[in-house]
Each structure stands twice: as structure tokens, then as C-alpha cells.
């Protein structure tokens, strides 16, 4: 008692650590905001930004090293066929709006087909917003003005995602099998898996729709019955055959690849479907092009040619959005 205890002597060059502030933890990293120092890949949108940077760098490299080979394919291209392709691509909105109309009516809503078609055209440019949910969200917001509940729109948006990519891959696999590009059993197996998923729609598709609605911040309505799911899948089959045929026509116009219709459309369906599952790639950018070139066993020169199809769809989206806005303004002026 009364004896002062000496502390451990400090090593030369070391300073005594100051006492922590009252109420502050001495744990390393304490006091930092949550998530500080976390890799950019774990932040929302960080992986998308990184992927877009990689795609831009690859596109610049291909343009610098393969430009002569690519430009040789389009030197004799006239604008007439491209205008026809853009006009034909506008028809793709017809089955897309039919899918939404059929699904909404199965959920108890009563929208007119023309109303859904107009809302689908007005919201087209939201497809290019990263996140993958904004086209459905924009279309749902426009349909809400016509009495369609946001919960029903969220459910249909989930159904479109749950069925769209699998149907695209199944259609593509069947066509690739029919053209001899893959083993026939792959096509048969793909159809069997799709039929099983549709038959178990209440459990498989319903869970995905519930997750999608929760992500949108709403509550899903009841999943449509199995018979409606089969009708919706049939509409999607027609859609993927139509857009695949448009892509095949684009290749024939820009530069004939000597690839048959079945193999080209099949490769398109599989590649575009894989792009759906690549959540880090907005609109499957880069994933679709790389997958299609790999499936068709083309060289790197064809990547820019394949990517040019997106320019056709972008021109379509700009055109339809402008027409839909003109119609909307005339409707408000006449009201």
C-alpha cells in the first residue's frame, strides 16, 4: 500500500497511446461509418459501373484493332434496309403489350390493350436505367393512372422476369438442337424443365414473383393460374421467335454470315437469356455479345457487328417514345 507501481518502459521512438475519449470504443475501426472501407464491388451499382468500364475498354480495343475488318462489312450498306429493320422492330411491342394485358386481366384488372400498348411505348427509355426494374416500374406508374394497381403491375413485372429469360433459353436450345448445333437431348430436356416449372407455377414462379414485389417495395397479388402461365409462355415463345428473326434479318442486311435461320435465332435466344441473369450487366450488355459470338464460334471481329443490333433497338425505342408522347399530349389537349 502506498507504493507506486512503475509502468512498462516504452521502447525508444514509441509514444504512449492517448486515452480513448469517454464513450468511444478502442476497437479498431470503431467510430467509422458503416460500410466505410468496403470494396466498391459491394456497393450498390459499383459492380455495374466496373462492368461498363470493362465493356467500354474492350469496345475501344476492338474498334482500334478490328475496325478495318468490321467496316468492310458495312461499306455498301444503304439506309433503306436499316429503316425497314427499325420499322419492323416496332412490332415487337405488340406481343410484349399482349403479355402484360393477359397477365393483368388474370389478376383481376381490366386494362384495355391499347392503354397497355401506349404505356409500354412511353416507358421504353427506362429500360436503359441500371437496375433492371425501371421499365416495369415506369409502365406500372403510367398504368396506375388508368386504374391498374401497382401491386398487380409489380406481379406482372415479376412474371415477365421469371418467365422471359427461361423461355428465351428454351426456345434457343430447341432451335440449336434442331439445327444440329447441340445434342438433341438438350432441346428435349429444356422443354421438359420448362413444362415442369410452369406446372409448379404456384410454388416456383410464385416465390420469384413475391421476391420481385418485395424488391419493388410492394405486396404481390395472387399468382395467375397454371393455364394462364402456359398462355403467357406461348406469347413469349412468339416474342422470342420474332426478335430472333429480326436479329437474323439484321445480320443478313449488314453482312451475310452464311449462318442458317435456326442456328442464328437459337443462339440469339440462349445469349439474350443469359444476359438477363447477368444482373451486373445492364440489359445484358457485353454478356449477350460475348455469349452469341461463342455459341456461333465467330471471331472477335463479329462482336461490334453483333453489338450494332442494339443501335436498331435504341432507334426503335426513341421513335416509339416520341410517337407515344405526341399521342399523350394530344390526348391531354383534347381533354
Keywords:
335 residues; mainly alpha; 66% helix; globular; disordered N terminus
- The residue fraction in helices comes out at 55-70%
Strand and helix order: HHHHHHHHHHHH
The best one-word shape is globular
- What is the β-strand count? 0
Uncertain spans, ≥5 residues at pLDDT below 50? Answer: 1-14, 23-42
Gyration radius, in Å: 27 Å
Distance between the termini: 95 Å
Q: Helical segment tally?
A: 12
Determine the mean pLDDT: 79
User: What does the largest sheet look like?
Assistant: none
Supply the helix-strand structural class.
Answer: mainly alpha
Overview of the structural elements:
The chain is an all-alpha fold and 335 residues long. The chain is 66% helix and 0% strand. α3 (93-106) packs across α6 and α4 packs across α12. The longest helix is centred in the C-terminal third of the chain and has 33 residues, at 302-334. The N and C termini lie far apart (95 Å). Mean pLDDT is 79; it is low at 1-14 and 23-42.
Amino acid at each position: 500500500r502506498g507504493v507506486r507501481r512503475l509502468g512498462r518502459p516504452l521502447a525508444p521512438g514509441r509514444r504512449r497511446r492517448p486515452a480513448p475519449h469517454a464513450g468511444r470504443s478502442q476497437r479498431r475501426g470503431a467510430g467509422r461509418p458503416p460500410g466505410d472501407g468496403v470494396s466498391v464491388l459491394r456497393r450498390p451499382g459499383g459492380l455495374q459501373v466496373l462492368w461498363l468500364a470493362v465493356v467500354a475498354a474492350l469496345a475501344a480495343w476492338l474498334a482500334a484493332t478490328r475496325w478495318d475488318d468490321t467496316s468492310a462489312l458495312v461499306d455498301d450498306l444503304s439506309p433503306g434496309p436499316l429503316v425497314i429493320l427499325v420499322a419492323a422492330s416496332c412490332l415487337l411491342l405488340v406481343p410484349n403489350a399482349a403479355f402484360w394485358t393477359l397477365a393483368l386481366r388474370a389478376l383481376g384488372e381490366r386494362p384495355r390493350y391499347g392503354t397497355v400498348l401506349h404505356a409500354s411505348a412511353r416507358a421504353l427509355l427506362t429500360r436503359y436505367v441500371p437496375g433492371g426494374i425501371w421499365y416495369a416500374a415506369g409502365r406500372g406508374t403510367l398504368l396506375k393512372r388508368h386504374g391498374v394497381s401497382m401491386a398487380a403491375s409489380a406481379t406482372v413485372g415479376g412474371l415477365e422476369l421469371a418467365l422471359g429469360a427461361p423461355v428465351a433459353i428454351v426456345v434457343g436450345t430447341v432451335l440449336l438442337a434442331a439445327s444440329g448445333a447441340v445434342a438433341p437431348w438438350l432441346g428435349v430436356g429444356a422443354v421438359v424443365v420448362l413444362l415442369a416449372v410452369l406446372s409448379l407455377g404456384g410454388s416456383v414462379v410464385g416465390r420469384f414473383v413475391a421476391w420481385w414485389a418485395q424488391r419493388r417495395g410492394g405486396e404481390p397479388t395472387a399468382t395467375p393460374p397454371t393455364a394462364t402461365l402456359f398462355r403467357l409462355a406461348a406469347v413469349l415463345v412468339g416474342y422470342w421467335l420474332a426478335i430472333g428473326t429480326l436479329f437474323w434479318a439484321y445480320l443478313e442486311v449488314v453482312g451475310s454470315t452464311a449462318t442458317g435461320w435456326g442456328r442464328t435465332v437459337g443462339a440469339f435466344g440462349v445469349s439474350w437469356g443469359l444476359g438477363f441473369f447477368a444482373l451486373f450487366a445492364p440489359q445484358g450488355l457485353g454478356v449477350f455479345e460475348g455469349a452469341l459470338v461463342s455459341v456461333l464460334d465467330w471471331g472477335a471481329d463479329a462482336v461490334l457487328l453483333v453489338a450494332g443490333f442494339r443501335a436498331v433497338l435504341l432507334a426503335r425505342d426513341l421513335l416509339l417514345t416520341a410517337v407515344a408522347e405526341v399521342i399523350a399530349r394530344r390526348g391531354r389537349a383534347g381533354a
